[in-house]
Design a protein that fits this description.
By secondary structure, the protein is mainly alpha-helical. It has helices at residues 2-20, 22-42, 72-86, 89-99, 114-123, 149-207, 211-219, 226-260, 262-266, 277-299, 305-400, 421-443, 456-460, 498-510, and strands at residues 47-55, 124-127, 139-146, 404-412. It has a four-stranded antiparallel sheet with strand order 2-3-1-4. The termini are close together.
């Protein structure tokens, strides 16, 4: 019970203080509440209109999924660009020009002014759907606030159209810049390609008929070419000619010796006489005649007619062989000269072929570099032309289609946004009560009990003070003031801080211990 009395005593005394100074409290409270009620009554409603839009990527240059963003960062970059355009001065100015000024507003000759554009920029918002963020969804919401519902719908539609048109202009400008840059790159790449092609043409012209051999040498280091096969054939033929020359030279020496001594001819191997068939046949006939004479001489005397006939035949064959040796020597001499000439000719052809191969081998590295340079420059030209074609396609797309599409028509909210009139009025009343209590608390000096004073220590360090154990009880109020609280007052009380006021109230009977 004592706790209840202690808790009710300060409230009762504070209520008496409010009643005693009700005029000072009610005046600011009613003023603030009246202003709040007037504002709630006169405040125009604020409406919000929203336009949902979807954003896609450019189809040009994206062969796998035309119109789709390849990654989230690309989508985020595009959406952030659209966000900057939505708040740009040109888009907002064109939208204001399209919609016109508010009804009943004083319009200057330079409308819309920079202030009008800045005010509209604060009321325009572009954001992804609720709970999402840029780069996660292709849908965006454009919202505009205004006091006129019809003008709010018109503004959001105009800003949406101007945003699409401005984004197309930006794409056109970017594509035009890319076209100019890529056209310059294409011209430079083509000039380099022409220079490399001219050097390659000059080298191929200097090679002449060996161009095919040079290309084959470049493409295949170990493959056979006509020039290589020709070189191998010439080497084989040269060896054969040199071998024939050597053989004919030896045969000529042998035949010349046989003209002096036919016995040496008979001792000559038959393979050396393959080129002289008649001489070979006479040699064989002479050998047969000598064998026949020897057979006859073994059984008959030398004066026997058969022996004499055989010996005569042998002498006749020898004479014929001697004549044939002269003819054979002249034939072998001719063959020897032909063989020597052929060997010389083959040696010259082989040397020329080897020189051509050596020259082609020296040109191979330069030719390979020129071929690689031409191929590289051709690839650069093709890449630049492809990018130029894509840029031109992007520019054509910027003229014909937009990357921002509106979803349905703009939607107006079902009710005005912001707090309602009742909420504003209630908050005004509450603010009035708080202001009145504050004015009373700061302008009225709290009552001080008899014999009580605030010590310097309390003034320097304001704290809650407790009553001394044996303090004098507070003097009762005079009978004339019974039923009415009569605290001291001064015309302009010095404002107190909250801590000092609470400490002062504790010393003057507002302490929780006052009822004990």
């Amino acid at each position: 019970m004592h706790d209840t009395l202690r808790s009710q005593a300060p409230i009762r005394k504070f209520a008496q203080l409010l009643f005693a100074y009700r005029g000072r409290c009610l005046t600011p409270a009613l003023a603030v509440a009246g202003l709040a009620l007037a504002y709630a009554a006169l405040r125009p409603d604020t409406w919000e209109a929203a336009q949902s839009m979807v954003v896609r990527n450019e189809a040009a240059g994206n062969l796998t999924e035309p119109g789709k963003f390849r990654h989230a960062e690309e989508m985020k970059t595009t959406q952030e660009t659209i966000l900057e355009l939505a708040g740009s001065r040109e888009v907002l100015r064109q939208a204001l020009v399209e919609v016109g000024p508010p009804a009943g507003a004083a319009v200057s000759a330079q409308w819309p002014t920079a202030t009008d554009i800045a005010d509209l920029a604060e009321l325009v918002k572009l954001a992804p759907p609720k709970g999402a963020e840029f780069g996660k969804t292709e849908v965006l919401y454009l919202t505009v606030r205004d006091h006129d519902p019809a003008r709010c719908l018109a503004l959001v539609g105009a800003i949406s159209r101007q945003l699409q048109a401005r984004f197309q202009q930006l794409r056109d400008a970017k594509a035009q810049g890319m076209i100019d840059e890529l056209a310059k790159a294409v011209s430079l790449a083509e000039a380099d390609l022409q220079q490399a092609t001219a050097r390659l043409t000059e080298l191929e012209s200097s090679v002449g008929s060996d161009l095919a051999e040079l290309r084959m040498l470049l493409e295949s280091f170990s493959g056979e070419s006509d020039l290589r096969r020709k070189s191998a054939t010439l080497e084989t033929e040269l060896r054969e000619a040199q071998l024939a020359e050597t053989s004919n030279r030896g045969l000529l020496t042998l035949l010349e010796s046989a003209r002096v001594d036919q016995g040496r001819l008979l001792a000559t191997p038959s393979r050396l006489l393959e080129s002289q068939p008649s001489l070979k046949r006479l040699k064989e006939g002479l050998v047969d005649a000598q064998l026949h004479t020897a057979e006859l001489s073994g059984g008959m005397s030398e004066r026997h007619p058969l022996v004499m006939a055989s010996m005569e035949a042998e002498r006749e064959i020898g004479n014929q062989l001697h004549k044939e040796l002269d003819i054979a020597c002249r034939g072998v001499q001719a063959d020897l000269e032909l063989s020597a000439a052929r060997a010389t000719r083959l040696s010259e052809q082989l040397a020329d072929t080897r020189a051509r191969l050596s020259r082609l081998a020296g040109l191979r590295a330069e030719y390979a570099n020129l071929i690689a340079s031409v191929k590289n420059r051709s690839a650069l030209v093709e890449a630049a032309q492809r990018e130029l074609a894509e840029a031109r396609g992007s520019q054509a797309g910027a003229h014909s289609a937009s990357l921002i599409y509106s979803i349905d028509a703009p939607q107006l909210g079902a009710r005005p946004v912001g707090p309602g009139r009742a909420v504003v009025a209630a908050l005004g009343l509450l603010a009035g009560v708080v202001v009145g209590a504050g004015v009373l608390f700061l302008s009225v000096e709290l009552p001080v009990a008899a014999g009580a004073a605030i010590s310097p220590s309390h003034q320097q360090t304001p704290q809650f003070a407790t009553a001394p154990p044996h303090r004098q009880p507070a003097q009762p109020l005079p009978a004339a003031a019974a039923g009415k609280f009569q605290p001291e007052r001064r015309r302009f009380a010095r404002p107190l801080s909250v801590r000092k006021a609470l400490a002062k109230a504790a010393l003057n009977g507002f302490s929780p211990y006052a009822g004990m």
